[in-house]
Design a protein that fits this description.
homodimer; 134 residues; Ubiquitin-like (UB roll); 4-stranded mixed sheet; 3 helices; 8 strands
Chain lengths: 134, 134
């Protein structure tokens, strides 16, 4: 593996923040974390693999829902401590709520209220039961 | 201040990751952190104010370079623990290296080498000396 990975500045937990942008809509659809193993697996398969901090384990994005993220481009920031993934989103759904992306809570800066304009494309119950049906 | 801020899930250091996207180019230009005070100041002035973890103090983006970030839109993610700012970038430069954004290190997935295609728009030495000249 090349030395750009060796030069990454991991945080104190050995993790790297990852911003995920859809290559077609250009929307920022997700934010997640990677450790070195998940980054190497992501590169090997050209599919996003994250480190789940809540479950404390590798998380192949899409392994339950089928909504894999195919990696088209990778950029590292000026400080070598944040990654930007440009992806093609299978199923068109990045968020576990069944929406295109996770940033659907828009702050109305006049009223200070949250507005949700993004539609639920697929019922999450349906999305995550799929695997068990097989 | 409305209760959406009260519902934010801050990390153990009282911080929130913030993704910054340019409203015109749609590029992700920066990644930074906010604490509650910096968020409230950002909302009050509609200009991005971050928490600098390296300097351990409030950081009015642009206070030295003049490259303020005018906030056009704010989105909170599904878990209420990540913010997406859509901004208009004064001076067209978000990165301290003098480039449009910080994610200029493109990984060539064939060669595993880093390629830098983003031009330096303005010499950082010139950019940060400006204030002292006044």
């Amino acid at each position: 593996m090349s030395n750009w990975i060796d030069n990454i500045v991991w945080d104190e937990d050995g993790l790297l923040p990852v911003i995920v942008q859809d290559s077609i809509s250009k929307r920022v659809v997700m934010f997640a974390w990677m450790n070195r193993i998940s980054l190497e697996q992501s590169l090997a398969h050209k599919k996003a693999v994250y480190w789940s901090r809540s479950r404390n384990k590798l998380w192949v994005k899409g392994e339950e829902s089928g909504n894999y993220q195919l990696i088209e481009d990778i950029h590292l920031d000026c400080d070598y401590d944040v990654l930007l993934l440009t992806i093609r989103q299978e199923g068109g759904i990045s968020c576990h709520t069944g929406r295109e992306g996770c940033f659907f809570n828009r702050i109305n800066m006049h009223t200070n209220e949250i507005e949700i304009n993004d539609k639920v494309i697929r019922d999450p119950n349906d999305m995550y039961e799929k695997k068990n049906d097989k």
